[in-house]
Design brief:
Layout lengths: L1 H7 L4 E4 L6 H15 L3 H4 L5 H15 L5 H13 L7 E4 L12 H8 L8 E5 L3 E10 L2 E10 L9 E9 L2 E6 L6 E6 L6 H4 L36 E5 L4 E6 L7 H10 L1 H4 L4 E5 L8 H11 L4 E3 L2 E5 L1 H14 L5 H11 L8 E4 L4 E3 L10 E6 L6 H9 L5 E5 L8 E9 L4 E10 L17 E2 L7 H6 L3
Parallel strand pairs: 1-18, 10-11, 11-16, 16-17, 17-20
Antiparallel strand pairs: 2-19, 3-4, 4-5, 5-6, 6-7, 7-8, 9-10, 12-15, 13-14, 13-19, 18-19
Helix pairs in contact: 1-12, 2-4, 2-5, 11-12
Length: about 475
């Protein structure tokens, strides 16, 4: 199981899938491929959701038949992916879009200047960089086009379309941005209670920034306060907080920075085992490898830890993609790791859409708990995901540990992405091929996150003192 976990974190598989430029065919190619190969499909399209899924699919296929431009076609694909609410299911665009020009008449500009500040259409500025006319312009999925009037950026000229808004509901829009001369998608709300354009730095002359629910303006959202006034930038460091409490920053689980983490832990081993109280700060940590988890376990361990295994979605495409990666890993990783994975995935040979075990669930047992530290506070926030969440699921089983902060991202149930490439235009879709057995047990965390036992407002100065008081 451990061997499998190590290799899984290194995999980013690639398949190639050619398709024609016609949007209807393009859209169908994506949804058919994912229906066959995406492991989350079997859980997310069920008798309960089938009607909503079918209605969405019918609507999108009708829209696809009317779309001519590649970018709007991929926006439709992106909307399809969003249905599954899976942070590991994502679209990557590999082509450079052609610039579109729109010529505005003096009458159109005059009318836009007279638009009420509360409306969407009008003249906007982004500091001293751009001045645009956001005009209603129906084309494909587009509702509004932002046409440059003035630009301090040489690559962008008057008349160029800098971004588009495509309505998805009342006050809800997809944003298609070309600012970086690439296609980027996002979502935003533009309404009376919240202005997503202002949050991105776009403001009508004379308009006040709308308040957020927290009472601060859209461009002044308070960042998390540092743990220390002289907070180091290093992802790993140790510091004594008081005579009985130590602080350990774990900013990443990435294998490339493990030597730094190992060095910090070795250099401070005596102090880590002397302090009865320990704060481990894993805020903002995401993907990585299990090696650092194994290194931290003795500090937290009090009893056998249940480690839930994962299943591989066996399809010819997924097996072929992983076989290619395993061939590439030969000689780079221990042969037993590679062969263990190879044997596991080939349990699915000849199958189309069956889950095969990558290893059993385990009870991880260490020789004996360390008497010190006696109490451990693990700090978490909404940027903790993937490997960090795996660490937290184990940590939460310790009688020493108390999770403190805000809920995590919730991106661990479906993982180990494969990548399928499409052409004309070039884009790819990342999709998970493994599923944690937590899902079948009703213990999934995706889109919910791991919840803290104690809530902490990291935006408030002095929050570390409040954490220490919890010991």
């Amino acid at each position: 199981m451990k061997a499998i976990a190590v290799l899984l974190l290194l995999l980013c598989n690639t398949a190639v899938y050619a398709q024609e430029c016609d949007c209807r065919k393009k859209f169908d190619s994506v949804q058919v491929y994912l229906r066959k190969n995406y492991v989350g499909f079997i859980d997310k399209v069920t008798p309960v959701t089938q009607q909503a899924y079918s209605a969405m699919l019918t609507k999108m296929r009708l829209q696809a038949a009317t779309i001519k431009g590649a970018t709007h076609c991929l926006l439709l694909v992106n909307r399809y992916l969003r249905f599954f609410k899976d942070q590991h299911l994502s679209l990557h665009i590999g082509y450079t879009p052609l610039k579109e020009k729109i010529t505005l008449t003096p009458q159109q500009v005059d009318q836009l200047q007279k638009q009420p500040l509360s409306g969407i259409a009008g003249i906007y500025q982004a500091g001293s960089l751009y001045k645009v006319a956001l005009v209603k312009n129906l084309r494909g999925l587009r509702t509004y086009a932002a046409v440059i009037m003035e630009s301090a950026v040489p690559e962008w000229k008057a008349g160029d379309v800098l971004f588009e808004l495509a309505a998805t509901g009342p006050d809800k829009f997809d944003l298609i941005s070309y600012v970086e001369q690439q296609v980027n998608f996002d979502t935003l709300t533009v309404g009376k209670r919240y202005d997503g354009l202002a949050a991105l730095g776009w403001q009508k002359p004379g308009a006040e920034l709308p308040p957020l629910s927290s009472g601060i303006t859209a461009l002044q959202k308070t960042p998390e306060a540092p743990a220390f006034a002289d907070m180091p930038v290093a992802p790993f460091f140790f510091r004594q907080v008081n005579d009985s409490t130590a602080y350990l920053r774990v900013g990443s689980f990435d294998a490339t920075v493990y030597p730094l983490a190992d060095s910090v832990l070795n250099a401070n081993d005596e102090y880590l085992r002397r302090n009865p109280n320990l704060v481990i700060d894993v805020r903002n940590a995401g993907t990585g490898a299990d090696k650092l988890i194994e290194r931290l376990r003795p500090l937290l361990y009090t009893q056998p830890v249940r480690i839930t295994g994962a299943d591989f979605y066996a399809t010819p495409d997924n097996i072929a993609a992983w076989g290619h990666i395993l061939d590439e890993q030969t000689g780079k990783l221990p042969d037993e790791y590679v062969e263990q994975i190879r044997m596991a995935i080939h349990q699915g040979d000849g199958l189309q859409g069956r889950l095969v075990s990558l290893g059993p669930d385990e009870n991880m047992i260490l020789p004996a708990p360390l008497p010190v530290p006696a109490k451990v506070a693990v700090l978490i926030n909404g940027q903790c995901s993937n490997t960090a969440e795996q660490f937290l699921l184990e940590a939460a089983q310790s009688q020493k540990v108390k999770l403190m902060g805000t809920p995590t991202a919730g991106a661990l149930d479906y993982s180990n992405v494969a990548r399928v490439k499409f052409t004309s235009p070039d884009f790819s879709v990342d999709y998970p091929v493994t599923r944690s057995r937590r899902v079948a047990a009703g213990q999934g965390i995706d889109n919910k996150g791991i919840q803290p036992a104690v809530k902490v407002n990291f935006n408030t100065a002095g929050w570390l003192e409040e954490v220490v008081k919890q010991f």
